[in-house]
């Protein structure tokens, strides 16, 4: 008995998007290495660190989006974290003295935006709660590290960021009630 194939043969053609991603990846790697070598040979401030992180930010946000947890809340939080790291690198390597004020303002305002996105459609966005809670804990850890490591006086922007973080955590806890712990159990498969 012979069988007749009715399905078309699968061709292993690379799609245009895969080709574009491969070209972009190698261009970004080449540009990063070139920036670092150029900065080493010329000397001076480490501007190449800021340039390399800027290229990573573009790659991570635009060219290589997440396949898992791709939603508005997660993407905003990822953009804020990458932007804050870029601002801290700029502060440390190029022009110092302003990141302690700017980064908490950006984090506080992004918490407000994410809270609006979360609470306007809570039933749908409830499954995106974990990135928000982790971001709040990251902000609290950043505040603790800032005050323990630098031992500076109280910064108003950091206090506002801490208040926004506690307020958002309390709002989530009040809204979810006893389900707050259940969300962690679901996400981490804890019995």
Low-confidence stretches: none
Q: Helicity, in percent?
A: over 70%
**Gyration radius, rounded:** 22 Å
User: Total number of helical segments?
Assistant: 8
The gist of it:
The protein is mainly α.
Write a structural description.
It is built from 8 helices and no strands. It folds into 2 domains: about 60 residues; about 120 residues, no CATH class. Helix 1 runs antiparallel to helix 2. The protein has about 190 residues and is an all-alpha fold.
Topology:
Blueprint: H1 16-42, H2 47-63, H3 72-93, H4 99-120, H5 122-125, H6 129-150, H7 156-176, H8 179-188
Tags for this entry?
191 residues; mainly alpha; 2 domains; 76% helix; flat
């Amino acid at each position: 008995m012979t069988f007749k194939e009715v399905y078309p043969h699968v061709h292993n053609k690379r799609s245009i998007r895969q080709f574009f991603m491969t070209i972009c990846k190698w261009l970004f790697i080449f540009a990063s290495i070139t920036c670092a070598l150029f900065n080493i040979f010329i000397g001076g401030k480490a501007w190449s660190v800021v340039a390399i992180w800027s290229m990573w930010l573009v790659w991570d946000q635009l060219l290589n989006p997440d396949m898992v947890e791709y939603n508005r809340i997660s993407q905003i939080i990822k953009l804020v974290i990458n932007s804050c790291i870029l601002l801290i690198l700029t502060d440390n390597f190029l022009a110092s003295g302003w990141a302690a004020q700017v980064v908490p303002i950006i984090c506080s305002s992004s918490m407000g935006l994410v809270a609006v996105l979360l609470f306007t459609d809570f039933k749908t966005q409830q499954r995106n709660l974990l990135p928000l809670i982790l971001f709040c804990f990251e902000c609290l850890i950043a505040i603790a590290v800032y005050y323990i490591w630098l031992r500076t006086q109280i910064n108003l922007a950091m206090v506002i960021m801490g208040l926004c973080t506690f307020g958002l955590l309390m709002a989530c806890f009040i809204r979810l009630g006893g389900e707050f712990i259940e969300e962690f159990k679901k996400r981490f498969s804890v019995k």
